[in-house]
Amino acid sequence: MSHPYGWLSLVPPFVAIILAIVSRRAVMSLLAGLVCGALITSGGDPWIALYDILEIHLWPSLTDPDKLRVFAFTLMMGAMIGIVSGNGGMAGLMRLVAPLANSRRSGQLAAWLSGIIIFFDDYANTVLLGGTLRPLCDRWKISREKLAYLVDSTAAPVAGLSLLSTWVAVELDYIQEGLQSLPMPTDLQAIELFIGSIPYRFYVIASLLFIPILAFTGRDFGAMWRAERRRWTSSTEESNKEETNSAALSTSDRAAHWYDAVVPIVTTVVVVLSLFYITGRQALAMTDGDAGLKEIFGAADSYFSLQYGALAGLVAAAALSRIQGLLSSSQIARLAADGARVMLPALAILWCASALSRMTGDTSVDGSAPTLAYEFQSHRLYTADYLANLVSARNDEETDQFQTVTVKLLPTVVFLLAALLSFSTGTSFGTMGILIPMVIPLTYTLLTADGAALDTRHPIMLGAVGSVLAGAIFGDHCSPISDTTILSSQACGCDHMAHVLTQLPYALTVGVLSIVLGTLPLGWGIPVMILWPCQLVTMMAVILWVGRPIGESNC
Fold first, then answer.
1. In the prediction, which pLDDT does 453 show?
2. How distant, in Å, are the alpha carbons of 118, 196, 251, 429 from that of 169?
C-alpha cells in the first residue's frame, strides 16, 4: 500500500522549523505546523482541520496522564525555586561558597562551583548567582562581562544534564515522543536514552570544563581579554564604588540560611530516587525478581516519581519558611505562584511540540499502535514511514555510499541544525521540542535501511540525541535574543551586547572543538571515551596558545 501523503508528510515539521528561524517564536511556529498538517489530513477542508487541531491533536496532548505529570512536576519545581529564593535560602547557600574565593582564580572557580550547585533550574541559577556574586567579583576585579559568562555558561548546561531539574521531565517527554514514533516497538525507556546520551553532549560538557581551565591558566582571549584588562587596570576608587553598589543590590533583608535551600532539594532527590526504586521493583516483580539497579531504574515510572518528588520538595520549602517565620502564608503563596508562572512558556512549547510529534506519527488518538497499514491516516501523517520508504527505495551502490556518509555526518548535521534553530529562536526548549521527535525516528530509519535490527543504544543514535540537546544550548549561548543570555547580563549588571560579544568567541571555540573532536569523529566510529581526553587537551592547548594573562598589555 502506497504512502497516503508522500512528501507532504514532511511539510508540517519543516514549516515549524523554517518559521521558527524566521519569526523567532516557537509556539506560533509549532501551531503553524499543526495547521499545515491538519489541512493535509483533512483534504484541505478548513473546518475539519480546525476541529482536528482542537479535538484530535491539542486536547489529547494536554490531557494525557503522563503529560499532566510533566506539567505538574515543572510547575512545582518552579514554585519551590520561587520559595527558596524568597526565603533567603539561595543567598545562604551562596555564602557558603564565597569564603573559598580569596583570589581572581579562586573567585572564578567559586562562581563556577556555585553554578554547578544550583543544578535544578537555569533561570534560578542565572538570577541568583548574578546578584549574589557581584560583590565577590568586584573585590577581585573580575569584570561584569566575565561574571555574566560564568553564570550563563553554567546555567543551561547544568540544568540540561541534571537528572533533577526543571528540564529533565521536558527532555524525557520529548525523547518518549520520539521513541513512540519508531516504526518498530522498542523496550528502551526514555530515561535510558537520556542518560546514555550524556557523554555525547560534547558542547555542554566541554563548556563546563572550559571555565576551570580559563581560571587555572589565568588567561583570556578576544573581547573577554579586553574587558578583563579594562577592569584590572581600573582605578581603586572606581572599584570601591562598584563593589559598594553591587553589595547594596545583593543585600537581602531576610535571614539567609543555607539549609532552607538544601533541605527541599535533598528531600526532592531522596523522594525521586526512592520512588524510582519502588516503581521499578513493582514493574519487574512479575518478570525479573533478581534485577539490578540499572534494570530497576529503567523500568521505573519516571513521571510519577518526578511529580511526587517535586511535591515533597515544595512542601518542605513551604514548611521551613513558615515554621521559622521567614515568610507568611500569603508570601509563600505569592512566591510559589511567581515561580510557577515563569515555567508557563516552556509548558506551552512542550504542549504544542507534543501535538505536532503525534501528528507526524502513526498511533491513534488514545495512543494505541496500528494493526493495519496507515490505519489512522485521517489524522496521522506517518512521516517516519515515508522517510523509511525514501531511504530504502533504491539499493544500488551509489545510494548505499550516500546513505553511509549521511549516517556518519548525522550527529554533526543535527548539532548544526539545532544550533541554528536555537540561535534564531532564542529557546532551547523549542528547539528540542521540534527536533528530538524527528531525529530519533530519522536516525533509526537510516541505521536500519539495510534491514538489520538496531540496538537503540547505538553510538550514532546516542550521538544524534545528544547533538540536539547540546546544539540547542550552543545556539542559545550565542543568541542575543536568548532568555538566559538576557537574564545573565541583567542579573550581573553587564551591558547586554557586551555580554554577547565577549561570550561569543568562547562559545564558538568550544562549539568548533565539539564538532572537530566530537560529532565528526564519532560518526566515523571513534569511541567517545577517546574523544573526551583529546578535547580536554586541545582546549588547554588553545587557551595557552591564544590566551594572554590579564596583566599582559598589548605592547
1. 66
2. 17, 16, 34, 12
